[in-house]
Specification:
This protein is an alpha/beta fold and 142 residues long. It is 51% helix and 10% strand. Helix 3 links the parallel strand 2 and strand 3.
Length: 142
């Protein structure tokens, strides 16, 4: 029973604020990745993260070209999530963030990092360093 028109209004308002104040945004695009991409194209200066990315590889590449990072959490550890796991294998590590907010266990971050490192056939240390650098870049931390 979501009022999509109202949701879109508030989302566009947030995009306008992010653009006006040059701030990154975090978007949770549940079953709406195409709509999000369409609206982001109207706000080309906005960058940020797509939290819990679950779209297609084509959508992932479009978002990366637009300057977005893609966040992945425990869903990546599900062996049945073949499509998502294949997407992660093919994405550059410079576009990835690891996240765990869907579970209260802080060890989940390590589990996600280990799984992504294994999928990408790189060391966990290399993945963590790159994801740290990605977060520093996204949030303009020093």
């Amino acid at each position: 029973d979501i009022d999509r028109k109202q949701q879109r209004h508030f989302f566009v308002s947030q995009l306008e604020l992010a653009q006006k104040y040059d701030l990154p945004i975090i978007i949770h695009a549940v079953k709406s990745t195409e709509d999000v991409i369409f609206l982001l194209k109207k706000h080309p200066k906005v960058t940020g993260e797509i939290h819990g990315f679950s779209g297609s590889e084509q959508q992932a590449n479009s978002l990366i070209k637009m300057g977005f990072y893609l966040g992945f959490g425990l869903q990546i550890t599900n062996q049945q999530s073949k499509r998502l796991r294949d997407i992660v294998k093919n994405l550059p590590i410079e576009s990835l963030l690891i996240e765990t907010d869907d579970h209260p266990n802080p060890q989940d971050l390590s589990i996600v990092a280990e799984e992504i490192a294994e999928l990408k056939q790189i060391s966990v240390e290399k993945l963590i360093t790159q994801c740290d650098n990605n977060a520093i870049s996204l949030f303009r931390l020093s």
